[in-house]
Design a protein that fits this description.
Radius of gyration: 27 Å
Distance between the termini: 61 Å
Number of strands: 14
Shape: elongated
Strand content: 15-25%
Structural class: alpha/beta
Helix content: 25-40%
């Protein structure tokens, strides 16, 4: 007998409501138990809408001893329900704070609420003293050390990244508050901070340098999000009519060196609407992220297989935002592989987590290349029509039309436009935005293929070259000379070799040659 369907907890971050009102719940208490038994101070970075707030609320209910809520869960028979702890919780998840005055007002209001609830009127006017005094007095009042929970600790800074001066002031204000946690060590039982980004310790956590960062700890990779097992068991009643492989391809793949997970928001909206759409991406991808990638001229094919180290992934601050760190911490790239070289420095291979992110991010990048995003969308539809019709020469006209729409000042301000990598980026983004099966720099015995696309039982092998003024045919010739097509012959599908020559002077496609190799030995070139 299949389990009964329950209510979908879309947007609900309150543990008590989920457990008491018949909502689906994925048991995360094994992670809570391990954290509490293993240490005292923790920090966790996860992208937005990954369930961080719900996990903090679960910790709150656990420490406050609300035993009925945990019946049937992993931790119920492993917890001392006779002992309760005072909890002080801060959250910056609601609203946008645009000045340090608003930050201070928010903190004062949250302290007011907790002081009033426990009949402990404020004895100091400044935030730092009020916070520290509240910790000490709550411990004295209850006879137990205090639990401190901070949700979205970094949001006041992230909301102001486009205004560097305000972001710096916000950072200093938060640093002063967070330093209290270390100073009050004797009165603290447990502390857990969550956020989207990991700001460097010297800038924000200089006063709180004893945090155990579990962001890329394999043991906690699935602390937020849903695993494949969760989808197959907890949410089994919701999968009727939805293909399991399509669900996995669209939404699974977020990984922090352990078990991969789904974004909960994506799955819950899929089960509710019964449509595959970029639900998470559409809820608030920051425009500054897309603009920053375009301004820096980032080589977009590199996003699919980017190798970096932890020092770069952890380099995130107002004065310096590494592209790798920004994309990883905000959830647009995830860890595909972790390797430890002989010298002891971990090397991480990053890539897109899934189809949703790859197609949506590339579509957004294409839109900023032109003054008219609707034109970019029309070009993508045209590309799909041409591939379905196997009209390869129509691709030349399409890409010439697209490059012609890019403003000249964009080229002038972007140094990558002088290299074939830029033109390859545009081609790649078009195919990636459609969600096609793409291989980049696929290795053969004779070299690396720039881009291979598999679609509609056909294989397209691309090589890109930048020439001076006129087409030279070097790109197609390289594909032939190095036998790039041989790798795919065993698939028994038609293979199209496509050489694309770009001119930096004209800033457009000047050569587009195609050599088709059907399943039979006979081949016919057409240009």
């Amino acid at each position: 007998m299949s389990p009964a369907r329950r209510k979908l907890p879309i947007g609900i971050q309150t543990f008590a409501q989920i457990m008491s009102e018949d909502y689906y719940y994925v048991d995360k208490t094994p992670f809570a138990h391990r954290l509490i038994e293993s240490g005292k101070y923790y920090f966790l970075s996860r992208p937005r809408r990954f369930g961080k707030s719900l996990f903090l609320d679960t910790l709150k209910e656990l420490f406050e001893g609300n035993e009925p809520l945990f019946r049937g869960l992993f931790i119920h028979d492993r917890w001392d329900w006779k002992t309760t702890y005072p909890v002080i919780r801060f959250s910056f998840g609601g609203g946008v704070l645009k000045s340090v005055q608003h930050l201070q007002e928010t903190l004062h209001r949250q302290l007011d609420d907790q002081e009033r609830r426990h009949e402990l009127p404020a004895r100091y006017p400044d935030l730092r003293s009020r916070f520290q005094d509240l910790i000490v007095r709550r411990s004295e009042q209850t006879g137990q050390r205090v639990v401190v929970l901070v949700d979205e600790y970094d949001k006041p800074i992230l909301d102001n990244l486009s205004d560097r001066e305000t972001a710096l002031v916000m950072r200093e204000g938060l640093k002063d508050i967070y330093s209290v946690i270390k100073d009050a060590d004797a009165s603290i039982r447990f502390a857990f901070l969550t956020g989207v980004s990991k700001f460097s310790k010297v800038s924000l956590f200089s006063g709180l340098n004893n945090l155990n960062d579990i962001t890329v700890d394999a043991n906690y990779s699935a602390i937020c999000g849903y695993t494949q097992t969760d989808v197959d068991t907890v949410f089994a009643p919701e999968r009727d009519g939805l293909d399991r492989e399509d669900i996995r391809r669209w939404y699974n793949g977020y990984n922090w060196t352990g078990e991969a997970v789904y974004n909960p928001f994506d799955l819950l909206l899929l089960f509710d609407k019964r449509q595959f759409r970029p639900w998470w991406f559409e809820t608030g991808t920051p425009s500054f992220l897309i603009n920053l990638l375009a301004e820096r001229g980032f080589f977009t094919p590199q996003l699919a297989r980017l190798r970096t180290g932890m020092e770069l992934l952890s380099t995130f601050d107002v004065e310096r935002i590494a592209t790798e760190a920004l994309l990883f911490q905000t959830g647009y790239l995830t860890i595909h592989k972790a390797e430890e070289p002989i010298l002891g420095h971990w090397i991480y291979t990053l890539g897109y987590p899934n189809h949703e992110v790859e197609s949506s991010l590339n579509a957004s990048l294409l839109s900023v290349y032109t003054d008219d995003p609707s034109q970019s969308f029309a070009h993508r539809l045209r590309l799909l029509d041409l591939l379905l019709a196997d009209d390869l020469m129509g691709l030349k006209d399409l890409f010439q039309a697209f490059f012609a729409t890019i403003p000249h000042q964009w080229y002038d301000n972007n140094p990558i436009s002088r290299y074939e990598g830029y033109y390859a980026s545009v081609f790649y983004s078009y195919f990636a935005a459609l969600g096609l099966d793409i291989l980049l720099e696929d290795a053969t015995n004779h070299g690396r293929i720039d881009m291979t696309v598999k679609f509609n039982q056909r294989i397209y092998v691309f090589e890109f070259k930048v020439v001076e003024l006129t087409p030279e045919g070097r790109a197609l010739q390289q594909i032939k000379d190095k036998g790039y097509a041989e790798k795919y012959r065993a698939l028994g599908q038609p293979i199209h070799l496509i050489g694309v020559d770009f001119s930096h002077a004209s800033r457009n496609v000047v050569g587009f040659e195609v050599y088709s190799q059907p399943e039979t030995p006979s081949s016919a070139p057409y240009t």
